[in-house]
Specification:
- The chain is mainly alpha-helical.
- It has helices at 11-77, 97-104, 113-149, 156-161, 164-189, and strands spanning 4-5, 8-9.
- The protein has one domain (7-189).
- A hairpin with a 2-residue loop joins strand 1 and strand 2.
- Helix 1 (11-77) runs antiparallel to helix 2 and helix 3 (113-149) packs antiparallel against helix 5 (164-189).
- It is rod-shaped and about 105 Å long.
Amino acid sequence: MAKIRNGNIDWKKYTYEMISIIIGVLIALGVDEWNEDRQNQERANTALVNIQNEVRRNLNILEVLHPRNMEAFTMVQTESTEDDSATIAPGLQLQDVAWNTFMSNGISVYVEYDELYQVAELYSIQQIYKDFAHQFVEQVMATRSMSIVNGNPLSESEIIGSNLELLTLLLGVEEQLQNHLSEYLDEQSGEPST
């Protein structure tokens, strides 16, 4: 501490000590902030890996469902009702847990805007798809219920056929979602999209 000489304070030494303390505190705060930013960047990178894994799983689901749905759609369009195996299975099980977790914990600020926008667009299309899928399932159930109540139960093909417009829209969005998911994963792996 600054010494008092003959009743006066040694201002030079006092000022030097204060500046040293302030610089030390600023350096400590800077190091702490740098460390926190580094940890948040690591969390953001981990979250992006989780999102890529989730997108990959969702794409795998669509790669199984979409061909089957298209086959059933074709059967309904050609009115081949002798084979009543036309069943549409929308991908209501597509997940968005990694995305929701990423957005809710505040680390999205550590991701480049373009990448964040691209992922947000994917999940937006996925949500549109799931909304149409829910609507389609509700319509099919309502049609089935009404046909039973009216005493004229419809076959699965007839039920799907009566909801053809919504199904056409659903399958279009399903295909677009599948393409977007595939393109995103290709870009992340550095492979050209097909």
